[in-house]
Amino acid sequence: MTVSSFHPPSRVLMGPGPSDIHSRVLQALGRPVIGHLDPEFIMMMDEIKGLLHYAFQTTNQMTLPISAPGSAGMECAFVNLVEPGDNVIVCVNGVFGGRMVENVERCGATAIKVVDDWGTPIDLNKLEDALKANPGVKAVAFVHAETSTGVQSDAAAISALAQKFDALTIMDAVTSLAGTPVLVDEWKIDACYSGTQKCLSCVPGLSPVTFSERALETIRGRNHKVQSWFLDLNLIMGYWSSEGATRSYHHTAPVNTLYALHESLVMLKEEGLENAWKRHAKNHLALKAGLEALGLTLLVEEGYRLPQLNAVKIPGGVDEALVRRRMLADFGIEIGAGLGALAGKVWRIGLMGQSSSPRHVTLVLSALEGTLTDMGANTGNGGAAQAAQKVLLA
Ligand SMILES: *Cc1c(COP(=O)(O)O)cnc(C)c1O
């Protein structure tokens, strides 16, 4: 068998990530490699830090992209802040909260779980009860935007509760960053991590993180070495430090991926965060109008819905996997399946970053209506794309 170059098919990415990427970002990826200690590269790294300050709405000095995907950002937050013997409250209302529990336990600490149903936000009363019942917890960890269910929790209120009980906050903003407000300083979040392939519409493989001064004090005061050499912030900071002259080799930075992140952050700055949030909100409302025309409903109650991740209940009698396969084969559109407890119960339609546009909304609705009609399913009143356009053109 001869193996030749790989050419990916043309796709429209409307699942839970990765999202579609602008040609400007892909072009940045193809620029020549330079040394990762080259003074010109270091200047670009400083610009990335500045742009991440803007994206996270923070002045935290320790703000940088980890050279690995969102899961590594998650691990970075836990391994640096959590030590053997600590107690950490973890709010679990979907897949990613469950992964946080794993991280806490692998740090040799105890995870105290505050569990809510999949599809509902984190219950503040339950969290307060857990804080009262467990004096001295080191941190409260939670997922701001649960990609597995499409739920957004009230980060400001969760963080205020954690402050009241003198606990650090660890927030997963992988899906929220650049899609809905993430206000790290205003909410007093101590550790926050994200990913590049969701609302930032960059290639997968980097995890922007930010740590508060209080988090850094905690890290400096550790009794045990951070068990991960690669993710030890004390060492990473030697490379990403603010004084360019003293930068030392830690690992070889993914040079071209960082060009791409730089470009996607420049694009975010050009659009403006608030405009990006508004765009995500409007396209979500248009999608919702179209889905309703087809008699379809969203899993999550109004008020907690993520505009960038829409969990749609599967109507009775429909082969949900066949719908996804046909959307991909007939229209080149990728939508997501349900995960874990929601497997087979929902589709997850992502409107993230560049995939949050009137074009994407119109396309996915029209393709979904066509597919369901062809499969003999009930499509309500029909006219999904037109219903969405009423919202889009209003
Ligand atoms: C996607 C995602 C992650 C993991 O990011 P990867 O880049 O896939 O490692 C973590 N948390 C949430 C909420 C996510 O949506």
UniProtKB/TrEMBL annotation:
The keyword Lipid biosynthesis is assigned to this record: no
Where is substrate bound in this sequence?
A: 348
One GO MF term on file is:
alanine-glyoxylate transaminase activity
Which InterPro entries would you find in this protein's record? Aminotrans_V_dom (IPR000192), PyrdxlP-dep_Trfase (IPR015424), PyrdxlP-dep_Trfase_major (IPR015421), PyrdxlP-dep_Trfase_small (IPR015422), SP_NH2Trfase/AEP_transaminase (IPR024169)
Keywords (A to Z) from UniProt: Aminotransferase, Pyridoxal phosphate, Transferase
Q: Superkingdom of the source?
A: Bacteria
**Domain Aminotransferase class V span(s) in chain numbering:** 35-338
GO annotation, biological process = glycine biosynthetic process, by transamination of glyoxylate
Q: Where is the PTM N6-(pyridoxal phosphate)lysine found along the chain?
A: 198
What does this protein need as cofactor? Answer: pyridoxal 5'-phosphate
Q: Which PANTHER family match?
A: ALANINE--GLYOXYLATE AMINOTRANSFERASE (PTHR21152:SF40), AMINOTRANSFERASE CLASS V (PTHR21152)
Family to which this protein belongs: Belongs to the class-V pyridoxal-phosphate-dependent aminotransferase family.
Q: What is this protein called?
A: Alanine--glyoxylate aminotransferase
Instruction: Please give the organism.
Output: Magnetovibrio blakemorei
